[in-house]
Amino acid sequence: MATIEDELTGLHNRRSFLALLRRHIGYANERRTNLALIVADIDGFARLNAAHGYEFGDRALRHVAQQLREVIRPQDYAARIGDNRFALILPGVMNAGHAELAVQKLFRLFEVPFDGGKSKVRMTATVGAAVCPMHASQAEFLLRQAEKSLEVARNTGQRWLFPPECEDDRGFSEFWDLEIELDGAVQRGETYLTYQPKLRLSDLQPVGAEALMRWQHRARGLVSPEQFIPIAEQTGQIKGMTIWALNTALRHASEWEHTHGRLNVAVNVPAELVGQEDLPDLVENALKLWSAPDTQLVLEITERSLVMDPRHSFKILSRIRDLGVKISIDDFGTGYSCLAYFKDIPADELKIDKSFVAGLLTDPACADIASLIIDLAHRFNLSVVAEGVEDEATLEALRQRHCDVVQGHLFAKAMALDEFSAWLRRAAPPDAVRRAV
């Protein structure tokens, strides 16, 4: 029987929380009463872990759990629903003002510094709140409204917010169902990796592949990554899925049969993992298990991973590069490109976002941006990858700009392991690459 408690804090875990929220939203709708949902993130928790260590961080989380127990009434529920994200379910509140009182009481409890033994820290939280039926009448949408409020509060420098606007809550049941079904998908063998080749532009020979995660649901069929990856990120499942992808990609790459020299395999790492202290250890463990002499691991990260805390992220990425792993900045040019940190960036490769590649022939601005990215990267001894190459004219435009590596449907789609292995064996001369499309 699955536990309903979070092992670290003793609060309800995410699965138990979701079941409770759905049940009590049902009661609230039947009885025409109000229910408040409060979602709180501990601010700067990654930095707290980095400064004081994970044991200190765990004690801090247990302290927060105890604070939440002091806020709630006997009929309320407290849960830990993410690494440093907590939630309160408050059935039977009179109105939104009662939810606000609970938020303010929570803030007052946080004003007392946490005594972790050797150090005392004053923790703060950013909070989002929502009330049923005022902001939503479905459990899944009420949660999204509270989480959206939290994100808006954080981005605007506020401590807490109700939903900034009310939206139609139809269509969120599927999102909710997918969230529940995604839990355990890896263990059930429903996830797998596909590989899209990356080719050296000068001779169109393979230099490696990007590993892309897929979810083959037992009833729904193939679920788009655009659906399940954001769900995994929001629900805290993305870390386990990333570790699985890392180990699986390295294991597969060690088995590739080819005559192309050393090939790289690229794995995407979400922004929230880049700042975590244990990421280098997780990478090192995977390398010890699966690394092969003719395989080069590349971690693809986004610019957002860097700007949240550049100094800390750079330190983590430098430790990973010391393991012989290369770092690629994905979707470059679409985020927060900043020359102030670019000169010190611990990276080996930039990937031009496919939106710029798609507009290379028709939009002068896209063409200028692509040229600038390539020139800037080469000045700092970085390789440049253009993704989303769909036609010969775009390929030629990239060749004229001295791009280094290309990937896209002009050469091959993302393929399952067996298909990609066969493609590698066929891809000897450049002409064979074209025939493989």
From TrEMBL:
Pfam family, one: GGDEF
Protein's UniProt name: Diguanylate cyclase (GGDEF)-like protein
InterPro entries documented for this protein: Biofilm_reg_signaling, EAL_dom, EAL_sf, GGDEF_dom, Nucleotide_cyclase, Rev_trsase/Diguanyl_cyclase
Gene3D superfamilies: 3.30.70.270, EAL domain (3.20.20.450)
Organism of derivation: Agrilutibacter niabensis
GGDEF domain residues: 33-166
NCBIfam families with a match to the protein in the record: GGDEF (TIGR00254)
Positions of the EAL domain: 175-428
Cross-referenced SUPFAM superfamilies: EAL domain-like, Nucleotide cyclase
